Amino acid sequence: MQNYPPAPLEEWMRLYYFAVDADIGSSGVSDYSLAEVRALLGIGVDEMDAVVFHDSQTLGGTGVRRAIAARWTGGDSGRVMVTHGSTEAIYLAMSALLAPGDEVVVLDPVYPGLGDVARGIGCRLRPWTLRAGEGWRPDLERLAALVTERTRMVVVNFPHNPTGATLAPAELDALLAIVERAGAWLLWDAAFADLAHGAAPLADPVERYGRAVSLGTLSKAYGLPGLRVGWCLAAPPVLERMARVRDYTTLHLSPLVELLAERVIDGADRILAQKRAAARHNLGVVERWIAGQGGAVTWTPPAGGVCGFPRLPQVADVEAFCHRLAREHRVLLVPGTCFGTPGHVRLGFGGHTAVLQEGLGRLSEALRPAGVAALV
Fold first, then answer.
1. pTM for this model (two decimals)
2. Residue 247: exposed, middle, or buried by beta-carbon count in 10 A (0-12, 13-18, 19+)?
3. Full pLDDT tens readout for the chain, 376 residues
4. Are residues 214 and 154 in contact, defined by beta-carbon separation less than 8 angstroms?
5. Which of 38, 55, 143, 216 has the greatest count of CB atoms below 10 A from its CB?
6. Under CATH, to which class is 8-33+270-373 assigned?
7. Which residue spans of the chain are classified as CATH 3.40.640.10?
8. Is the dihedral of CA 291, 296, 300, 304 positive or negative?
């Protein structure tokens, strides 16, 4: 039995996600309704009525795998597995490829599941640290010093959750060279790939490196977390190993969910256009708000995604502050302790602009000297 550590981020979200008025801590965009998706993509009731609730296939239904392959693997559906969100893909890939004692290099801070699943398996984690004082810039020399012949897997997500940092194309080239030199697996979490700011999305490394395993999801950029659809792109032998793990867990997805996912991915550019425009606008809202806080909030603006990782230098206990913010001001902000980085918070700006502005206003009120003084 694998010994998984507590999941503080998920515990925080269970505590407050449904108990606030303004969510400015989540890492995804605003959610679409079924009616909006149907109208945007022309999905008829007859199409949905035609779905028969039989079992689907272990790697995913033919239609949704075709749609994913057409967008990301040059049409090769043999390299596609559809999963219950990217969270299941992380679990299946690590369970299939790692063993107790394996050495795994993982970003720090990072979305907790990307490290904790390997830790629960019994792997030895080596952190590739991103530093606030360096603007969260990924240091490839630091990575090169960490990756050795003992490294079994390198785990990254760019654009990065929670900081929004990312790589330039030349830096991606360097990262792939480092991983390939060691012959390690590369687990590439591309949850925010479609939300780059001021630059084209990075090319998916699964097309360039045979031991790359790439993960995607409809939960972040697409505004469809409730569908619980993710995917894994990898060589067929890797997917076969993952399927053997899945035989003991979820087996497959619902055919109705797969129909909706297929149509969403076929119409991805229409789905994403609204969310990208909103993300750019809301990023400007947050930047102007931070500029007006008189040093109470500092950050490096994110290069991608819809969250950043600001510091609250005037707050002595940021986790206690975030508890109070949720309970007294009904605003969700995620403390950096959920990512092993005290003093910071994950601030999300992917939601509706009015909700973001309301949440920032209440956060300003909580940060006023009288409010902060109670925590110092």
1. 0.94
2. exposed
3. 468 888 999 999 999 999 999 999 999 999 999 999 999 999 999 999 999 999 999 999 999 999 999 999 999 999 999 999 999 999 999 999 999 999 999 999 999 999 999 999 999 999 999 999 999 999 999 999 999 999 999 999 999 999 999 999 999 999 999 999 999 999 999 999 999 998 889 999 999 999 999 999 999 999 999 999 999 999 999 999 999 999 999 999 999 999 999 999 999 999 999 999 999 999 999 999 999 999 999 999 999 999 999 999 999 999 999 999 999 999 999 999 999 999 999 999 999 999 999 999 999 999 997 455 444 3
4. no
5. 216
6. alpha beta
7. 53-268
8. negative
